Amino acid sequence: IGDGQAAIFKMESHNHPSYIEPYQGAATGVGGILRDVFTMGARPIALVNALRFGDPSHPKTRSLVAGVVAGIGGYGNCVGVPTVAGETQFDEGYNGNILVNAMAVGLADQDKIFYARGATPGNPIFYVGSKTGRDGIHGATMASAEFSEGDEEKRPTVQVGDPFTEKLLIEACLELMATDAIQAIQDMGAAGLTSSSVEMAASGGENGEGIGVVMDLDKVPQREEGMTAYEIMLS
User: Fold this and answer.
1) 59 partner at 20 to 30 Å CA-CA among 43, 67, 141, 203?
2) Tens digits of residue pLDDT in 177-207
3) Architecture of the structural domain at 5-234
4) How far apart are CA 225 and CA 158, in angstroms?
5) What residue ranges do the domains of the chain occupy?
6) Is the dihedral of CA 176, 181, 183, 187 positive or negative?
């Protein structure tokens, strides 16, 4: 964009989680795209959203609107990134499931952009962020499922937002990126440790040929007791 800087942006949907648990679903949708931006070395500067809800007279619409709007605004306020634009429409076609599209924009120096690729053998992997819990497990599976009566049971699959920790994480990562300490970095997506570790390993090596990764799950910070390896890897 000039002056040696680049715009980093990401847009994605968080539809099903927001339908099941409007506040947390929308809030973690914002948190997820902020991660995508700052883990590339960009400081998040703006949030944008495009929302679709059912007919205003539908019994669930009012509570869905209130929860989603509060989730987006509340998370952005806590993490210190403003929502600068938004667009909302209502149609009965969305009575059964809403659309929550969120976008984050960040600013980075063109010569200081970070990627998941580039990790080489022998380097330690650092886990940073909130402790791992059981919320969010099978979130990606749920996002592809069809809804029916009794969807309340799917609420635990929606991740619980933690904007204050993410604010600390943004500042800590950007400060660390100002040094030469980081070879590669990847945010944890829908499959948690599984996705982030595999993505970094698959694109690692001197020429991107891929490398292995060894993880000691006993060292993963946990906020619940008795979690299985399966739960730790997929949260």
Assistant:
1) 141
2) 999 899 999 998 778 888 889 999 999 988 8
3) 2-Layer Sandwich (3.30)
4) 19
5) 5-234
6) negative
